[in-house]
Every structure is written in structure tokens, then in C-alpha cells.
């Protein structure tokens, strides 16, 4: 029943490579997730007090992401990052936050500064409505720039409450953090008493079962999760070291709450999704499907004589009208963005739904089988040769 398609209002079918911007790793309408939500529906929608399933979900997250010793559920990725920052500030007694250009961490004021995703598509990296008094506490650095990072810590290291980073960025197209960059982040944060927050709202359960932190072998102090953990329903989480989490209310002085956090329907969808992801070879299969797509697209583009490259990690991919994979936002901006627009529209007309911006990553689900990917590649061959004319 589960599928990689959706239909528009005119009944036209699309192969979906956005998957609700990441959550739909099992495709649309996975039978087990649907059954879990249907069962939960019959028991009541929301109680405002923890349910057993919420506790089971928390235990599952702590088991799968070992850096998370304690976790709190919230309803969106924005709430997760916003609450993690407040906790980091409350824990360290410091105000300054470091983020990286092109990383998007949701729409909390402190984080809407040189952010990626939709803001970049509108050519406006910093949102209107963010007071200068808030923005001044956020320092924005270049992703993967080791020299700039160490200089910043040398000059203001003792002011920094936290560094928040997408370890594999997916909001400026797909851009991997280099292992050296992430290792240096870990070391500098430890040396200077700042907290390292991995925003794995997108990469969590997407690039590997244990997220990017498992792939790199780096332990953040706090992690933010979302998207996949709600299985398409509004659920997200933040968590990490127990001694830090102890500063959250009601035990500690850092306030955080949410009427619908841990909502039974969202938890049912999330828990059923997390169980499905633990099937043997799930991630090998997902990765093979993504690799088939990116290799096929690269070949089709090169056959048409286009400058084009791709990258992928697990079920997440990047497409670049550039000779090489980018390492930071400036490099993504230097790719041939003029080629992206006709590519997107040709593919859409052919029934393939990629993200409508060169600053977004794409997502493959476990339902994108060979037939689906081959249909995508056939559309891509026609598209690339049309672009060359
Ligand atoms: N962090 C990252 C890395 C994201 O990709 C997103 C959303 O795209 C968010 C945070 C915000 O999540 P939400 O849209 O659920 O508020």
C-alpha cells in the first residue's frame, strides 16, 4: 500500500522526492504506521499527561541515539532547537550562539540569521522581524571553515553558550560537514565550556539509524530530532547529557512545556516508524536506492554534456549544477542556479517532484524501487537533453 507517489488536484501523479521535507522515509501511507495511528485514534487524541507510548518512544530514542541519555518530546523541529538553545544558555550562564551560514534550524528568532532553506530561496537569508538585540547574540560562521572556527573560539570562546550545527546540512542543498570540521567543533566546545548541539532534525534516522553522529563517531552534548520521529505527524525531540537535561523544569530553572507535546497520535506514528527502520538491512537498501538515483542522474547529465554532480548519504541526496560537490553555502551559490530552474520545471512536467530550489536536499523513501527510479531517470534523460538545446 505504501508508495512514493502523490496526486495533484487534477489527478496527475508525481514521484515524490520531498517526502514532506524528510519525514516520509517509509513512503506515503505505510500500512504499519497507518494501523498504529488508527489504533491510537480510538483511544483518545490528547491527554496532557504522558502516555505509555510516549515513554516507549523516549526509551527507543535513547536506545538508538546513545548520546541522548534523557529526552523531551516537543511538537516541531523549531521547538526542539529553540528549547535546546535556551537550555544551553541556562546551563552555561552565557548568551552567545554560534551557527553556520546556510544551516537552517527552524524559525526561532535567534536562529533565523543567515539561515538556509526557504529563506535562501527568497534571497533573504535573515528574516524581517528579528530584533537586533536578539540577532547580536548569534555569530554566523562559514560551514567547514576550520580557520575561522578556531579564530572565533580564540577570541570569544568564553562567551559561547553553544554551537548549533547540522552535521550533514540539508538546507543549502546537501553539504556534508567534514570529519575534521566536526571533530574540531567537538574539541573547541569541550575546551571552552560551550555545548555542542547537533541539529539532526533532518539527518536523524535519515542518514543512518543513529544519525550523523553515529556515522562520524562524534558525541554532541545535545541533539535535536524531528521529521522522521513523527512519521509524518507533528513530533520532535531534544535531549542529551543527563546533567544538562536536569536543568529543565520542573527539576531545573529552564522552562519548557507544550500542551500537545508527546501527542498520542504523533507518538504512535513515530514509534511505528522507528520500529520499521530497525528491520535488517533497511539502511543498506535505502542507501542503494539513493545511490541508484544519484548515479543515474549524473550519468544522464554527463551524457547530455552538462556540468553536474551529486552526493548522497543514506536516504538524503544533493544535486548540483557544478563540477564538484560544494563544501559551504558560498560554493552552492556559485553553482549554475540558472540551470536548476528549467531542470525542476521539466521534471515536474514529467511527473517527478524534486524540491523547487537548488538550496534544498532531496529524500528517497524505501518505496522508491528500481521501477520508480528508472522512470525518474528516463524523465531526467529527456530533461537534460532539452536543457542542452
Ligand atoms: N532543523 C533542521 C535541520 C530542519 O531541517 C528543520 C526543518 O526543515 C528544522 C530544524 C525545523 O523543523 P520544523 O519545520 O519541524 O519546525
TrEMBL record:
**How is this protein named in the record?**
glutamate-1-semialdehyde 2,1-aminomutase
Cofactor(s) the protein needs: pyridoxal 5'-phosphate
Q: Name one Pfam family in it.
A: Aminotran_3
Look up and give the organism this protein is from. Answer: Linnemannia gamsii
User: Looking at its record, which EC class is this enzyme?
Assistant: isomerase
**Which residues constitute the signal peptide according to the record?**
none
Membrane-spanning parts: none
Which pathway does the record list?
Porphyrin-containing compound metabolism; protoporphyrin-IX biosynthesis; 5-aminolevulinate from L-glutamyl-tRNA(Glu): step 2/2
User: InterPro entries, alphabetically?
Assistant: 4pyrrol_synth_GluAld_NH2Trfase, Aminotrans_3, Aminotrans_3_PPA_site, PyrdxlP-dep_Trfase, PyrdxlP-dep_Trfase_major, PyrdxlP-dep_Trfase_small
Is Isomerase included in the keywords of this UniProt record?
Answer: yes
Q: Which domain of life is it from?
A: Eukaryota
The cross-references to HAMAP family, in alphabetical order and at most eight, read:
HemL_aminotrans_3
Q: Which UniProt keywords apply?
A: Isomerase, Porphyrin biosynthesis, Pyridoxal phosphate
- Enzyme Commission code(s) on record: 5.4.3.8
